[in-house]
Amino acid sequence: MRTNRSLLLLIAVSGLLLTAAGSASFRYEQWKFPRVRRAAAEKDEAVKQLLSSKQLRYPPKAILLRAFKREGLLELWAENNAGTYTLVKTYSICATSGILGPKRRFGDVQVPEGFYELDWFNPQSNFYLSLHVSYPNAADRILASRQNPGGDIFLHGNCVTIGCIPITDDGIKEVYWLAVLARTSGQMHIPIEIFPARLTVVGLDQLAARHRNEPELVSFWTNLKEGYDLFERTHQPPTVRVSRGGRYVLTAE
Fold first, then answer.
1. What is the layout of strands, in order, in the sheet containing 114-125?
2. Total-model pTM
3. What is the CATH number of the domain that holds 40?
4. Catalytic, out of 94, 156, 211, 235
5. Is 65 a domain residue?
6. Domain-located, residue 58
7. Which of 94, 132, 159, 164 is catalytic?
8. Residue 114 has what pLDDT?
């Protein structure tokens, strides 16, 4: 029994060391790029002060982003010492394309709606810096076009878009550097939740009234509201699964 416990402890410690080494390696790789170094030089002290003003640790343990298409806003949240999330800053989304509603096919110029991750970093983007949104996710692969659902959706700098989320070069420097810090701290999955609007009761009622002849769309938004409500209640990102029919199954962490 003692041998087994020692072995388990060794495995656990080894895992932590590998994670730490991987995180350090990630930051080192990012640091090779001039735009990342410039973002750090310009934004690191501002980020420290911003987190300190919210009584949050630096570097952040984990971050989360929430985008609201109708309002044109992107919220950045960071995990606090209690394990819940605190709103750090809100950025303006400076350009948009398409209409309210999910992305379903290549070329529809839609910004996706749903529960995603920022799954890779692009330090040499055509739009200064960018973070890739994991569209199509499992729900999209069921509900979107089977032939070509589209892709290449990013949160990025500049102020132009065809289906992406631009927040200016200045905004992306801050968000990108915070994402690098969070990844270096060990956050391997950075959530980004994209909503058509703030899905309060009033907000959903307004959407439903304007789209009363599109019951499938209203049903989709009602499903998104489940995750919106969970976060509003708990200030923790929901656990996200997808049913065989493509609906999000959302539970508290």
1. 85-92, 73-79, 63-68, 190-195, 114-125, 128-133, 153-156, 165-166
2. 0.90
3. 2.40.440.10
4. 156
5. yes
6. yes
7. 164
8. 98
